[in-house]
Amino acid sequence: MEILKRKLSQLNGNSEPGEIRLVFREIAKDLFKNYHILKGTQKYFFVNIEFYFCNKKHLDMITYPRRLDEGKWFFHQSGVDLTFRSVYSDYGKKMVDVDKDFYFGGILVREVMKADSDEVFDGPYKCEWELFDKFDAFTPTVNEIPIIVRNAKEIPLEPMTTVRKFSYTKEKLQKKYKELTENVFFGNPIITFDGFSKLIREELAYIIDKKKLKNLLEGQ
What are the residue boundaries of the structural domains of the chain, listed by start? Predict the structure, then answer.
């Protein structure tokens, strides 16, 4: 587990786009091959994950700001992330001060497969509700909390890159860019609309073949 946590702390304010992509791919391969989510006795395997990381050299402004250590569950308006080490200085009302060092991000859990079942939870909210629903309000137990656990055996699957799922038209994308530059990122925008829309369309998500995963799990 410590190896995975170290990978989640590799990126910082000076990380270049090429380095960021390499870390994304390394973590994706590791999560798909070597880890699953355990809630009580029930296992869930990663099927689709999306990467988000924002610093001055990789201004993926769609990323929700957060101040957290690596390896935390972070809930936001679009689901739940596994966090990278994340730091930023705000400028009131939780706005990111772009004149100071900042870096933050995480891995959105978009799709998981329930072990010993054909059941797949496709969509970040469905994953969040399945994994984090129904906690005891008075005496919660450890078994109610989803944790990431190393597999007993490596799953020999190679993830494929794909685009993250957004439903933006050009008009909606322009509106989102305006909202972010005016309400979240304080100071010089340091990125154009063209740069923002290019990052939105990059292949920063990873997916595996569900049928192959099921067959491999049944063979273990």
Answer: 2-219
